[in-house]
Known about the structure:
15% helix; three-stranded antiparallel beta sheet; alpha+beta; 9 strands
Amino acid sequence: RDFAIMLHEWFIPIGAKTPDPMVMLDFNYFTFNSTLFPKTAPLVVKKGQKVRLRFGNLSMDSHPIHLHGYEFTHVAAGGPRMPRTAQYELNTINVPVGATETVEFIADAPGDWALHCHKSHHVMNGMEHKIPNLIGTNPSITEKEIQEFFPDYMPMGSTGMGEMFEMSHMMQ
């Protein structure tokens, strides 16, 4: 799967329905593909698929984009693919102003994983995903409903990665 995610910033006056394009430095909303949470679409992939995320920063701030549950490989900066010897693993990629960054990973861990900007005031103002946090809940109730649309769906679990850690130790 190959996803392009454009990073934007907006100033929307209180009570307004549209951004004020004349404001250039005082942003109060941060978006993926011009969409505010909770309207951002999840990036749905099947277990085992190779996933490529291409980030383009159209804003006036850098955005350290973080993916929970995975390490990914930084494969391109500014367009061309880097030689394999220059690629490296990480779980947060900083996307500077006006730049593009591309990462890849294999979706080998089932579940819902958060993707967001790691600057707290950005994530608090729209720059996050549409996946609910199910930690502490009983996911079996929603699991069946979601599996009607995505048969291979598996929730992260009520204790997050803790359940997967316990399962891996039981298999050894």
